[in-house]
Design a protein that fits this description.
A: 478 residues; Rossmann fold; six-stranded parallel sheet; 13 strands; B: alpha/beta
Chain lengths: 478, 235
Amino acid sequence: MSIKLGDLSYQQRIEKGIENDFMREAVSSAQGRFRNGRLTQAEELGDWEDWRQLGSEIRTHTLENIDYYLQQLSEQVSKRGGNVFFATTAEEANAYIEKVIKQKNGKKIVKSKSMVTEEIGLNQHLEKLGAEVVESDLGEWILQLDEDPPSHIVTPALHKNKEQIRKTFAEKRGYDQSDSPEELAAFAREQLRKDFLSADVGITGCNFAIAESGAITLVTNEGNARMVTALPETQITVMGMERIAPTWEDMEVLVSLLTRAAVGQKLTSYVTSYTGARLEGEIDGPDDYHLVIVDNGRSKILGTEFQSALHCIRCAACINVCPVYRHVGGHAYNSIYPGPIGAVLTPLLDGYDDHKELPYASSLCAACTEACPVKIPLHEQLIRHRQIIVEQEKKSPIMEKIMMKGFAQWASTPAAYKLSTKLARTALKPWTKDETIKNGPGPLKGWTDVRDFPAPAKQSFRAWWKERQKGEVRNGNS
Amino acid sequence: MAIHNQDAFLSNVAAHLGRPRRISGVKRPSWSVRPQDRVFAGYSKEELLAVLKKQCQAIHTDVVEVQQSELAEALTDTIKRYRGKTVVVANDKRNALYGLDQFYEQLNKEVDVHIWDAQLGKENQTIAERADIGISFSDITLAESATVTLFNDKHHGRSISLLPKSFIAIIPKSTIVPRLTQAAQQLHASVEKGERVPSCVSFVSGPSNSADIEMNLIVGVHGPIQATYIVVGDK
């Protein structure tokens, strides 16, 4: 996998999402819970707007000086017995990791959840080499067994129900118990424990690197990331280059924002900050440590009007409030980064060609911007994307172009406008039932597939206004 | 150790930022707001303890408060409650300070007690993996999130609070602070003083859990399935 999930068209992906009733119900209930959790925690903490302001200031300063902090980080890691590799592209990152694993003759690799390794297609790369790669986050493990991509950046298997998971476990691992989440999780614990203990190499992502001491902070609940960093003799951290905080104090603020905004927790069960290789005499932790810092398109966002998209701390708060995500689900975005942040980030990292529809997968209601704990102006960036697509790239969806052109001509000709608003009701009569259009023709189809369209009013607005002026409309004399 | 490809990478980053590369002299600005300092500001230890106890309910963690003279009894009770047959304990200086050296010796007659021993190497991990219960002292305790901070080192392996089915944290009352802010300040200060930060700082809040299956909270996934905090008056 890379950042792009597959080859279905935007329309096909959306239809698939909308037809998936379980997924839509799961997403809508999850959104509710996530949202309530975030709001409750924000209220309990107090001064939430101050916290957001602080988060935004820390991220702005960090990104403005990212070269300085990355240098400090790499020197600290090196001092603590770790190797650092700066990878400009996904290919460079994969090649370096491959080299390390070959040198160690690594056969079994155990991973904790990492979006950046999904982005660079690391698993596929390593599997081609014949290595066994085991995802150990419960959600990721389910998806790995089922060969399905993640649909949410915090709870990747959100689109699956427990019966589907039971079936997957039964088919792939001979599971013979019920579909109770506790039993399913206990089975995963037992299966994966063996993998943790026998793995040669552990690979994790990174929530926040701490520049001043070379520590990598992982924010988790299940304990798998602690296993991955404590048990294998060789350990590799892969981080997107922007995932860094200057000091422990800044990390603290970002973690406090992350756990609240992501899952409505004061802190997750585990926040673990580890540095380089284990020290003399220590038993747990790797003997051989590598940090891979990945650019893969990020640097070209720096210095542009989209720089603040790199402030993202991957909490998914924007995803959890998005009305479009609620209806189409994560896979419809065709990117490992779905939702509003995905719609902003994916075209920046992977170009407009394959992702030109994403900035349109938004109602511009600004709920995302309001939810973002580091104040990224997401909906404004989506508008900017649209402008760029229309002005420079000439890539706006074709149907919209035709409709907009038609609308402009039609609306600017008073006689045509007047006539058609009068005729619309008659013309749409065959599709109208109880004052709504349920399965509209032509350009209306895309809309009415998803929702009902109100039938044109019996009296057009212009006609109503005209009559009102004459004082002839009932209840209109306010 | 080696750093590869740094100059080309960082020069490219600086070029995109439209300025020469910054190698030194970057100072963190003073932020316009500091809400983190106001959380539970001025709370006494007792008030912070009340905050911690309340949060323990939210994270499915049992908490008991004892005097130092009652610590051994509280440990015995908890080990019994967890039906512990094997226990792995950090080799902490505070074991002696709190009279636990003799307690563990006594306990060893009924329960298999392993005190972490750096000399034994990887065998420690094997023992921890088979153990029913891990026991650690908290270094800094965060009231807000009911979190024990563990400075892992060669006497206090990361496995102790991770591999066994149950986890017991002993919390000296004096280690309780309002929140993560104070722990981070302490770590930052020690970096500033040029001290070596532990190779692993683990902030642990109760047992492991997951909400990955239909958003149902499952307590106990890869790490411990249950946890108890024993808050003890200071020596």
